[in-house]
């Protein structure tokens, strides 16, 4: 079993005033420098982030930008996720073109961002806002492991700390074995550094496995042992096997698991308890996994009341765009929040 390129959510930057664009640019350039991007690429990242941040503030009704580091082996890239709740973009294809300007939308300047980035994914609904994810590699030819195909990765997550906290107590991880994709979300008990430490330990235990192909319940038992002595937390694991049209799921605590297919939202059952505190009874469940399925795991920092119809309108978006939209629309500000999305069919 192997791990795909891993993303770390570095910083959420609120775009509540025009000067926020400068702060976002400086933060993005610092991250690009830390990841070893060459000076010309650092400057391009800063230019693109300035454009995005300015447009979100002026034309998207305000919003936020998330800076992420993406690593695969010795390669690294900067990923930027811009989120707004503005009027949205009617025609994303036209908005991507250089020189196109659509007053009142994030579409202004997207042609330039598309030209500078190695990959740009956009999800937008008129009246509901826009999410844009852009990736900037050091060198496209030198970083083939990070170069994504047209469909993007089969799974992606996003997290956001409780307002006022520097670290998030929720974490996610993805593992790949052939066509099978395993998703894991951990909500560390409480908030702050101790919760974040427990969540990071869950990620380590999940991704550093020396037992390839182990089923979800075995992986969760390993996480339980790793979290002994920590604050513990809630953990859920879902294994997507599109070839067999099968989903295997096991969860302890308040992680929500949902399968959305053909307009239906089907909940997955987690058992009460705290991983790392007492050996929980692990009861795995198997479900059908239709080819058009989207699987969502999220912590209780995201309301369960989001509608399947909302997700159905996003079925052709990448998992990262879907996760960011769900966090924007259903995230709870007074709690850590995490969303992880996997697709059965890329």
What would you note in describing this structure?
The chain is an alpha+beta fold and 346 residues long. It has two domains: 6-137, Heat Shock Protein 90; 155-343, 4-Layer Sandwich (Phosphatase 2c, domain 1), CATH 3.60.40.10. The protein has eight helices and 15 strands. A hairpin with a 2-residue loop joins β2 and β3 (75-84). 52% of the residues are buried.
Task: Offer a few descriptive terms.
five-stranded antiparallel beta sheet, about 25% helix, Heat Shock Protein 90, alpha+beta, Phosphatase 2c, domain 1, 2 domains
Gist?
With 346 residues, this protein is of the alpha+beta class. It has 8 helices and 15 strands.
Q: How would you summarize the topology of this molecule?
A:
Blueprint: E1 6-15, H1 20-34, H2 39-59, E2 63-72, E3 75-84, H3 92-95, H4 110-116, E4 119-125, E5 129-137, E6 155-160, E7 170-177, E8 180-188, H5 192-207, H6 216-226, E9 233-241, E10 246-252, E11 256-261, E12 264-268, E13 285-288, E14 294-298, H7 308-312, H8 319-330, E15 337-343
Antiparallel strand pairs: 1-2, 2-3, 3-5, 4-5, 6-15, 7-8, 8-9, 9-10, 10-13, 11-12, 11-14, 14-15
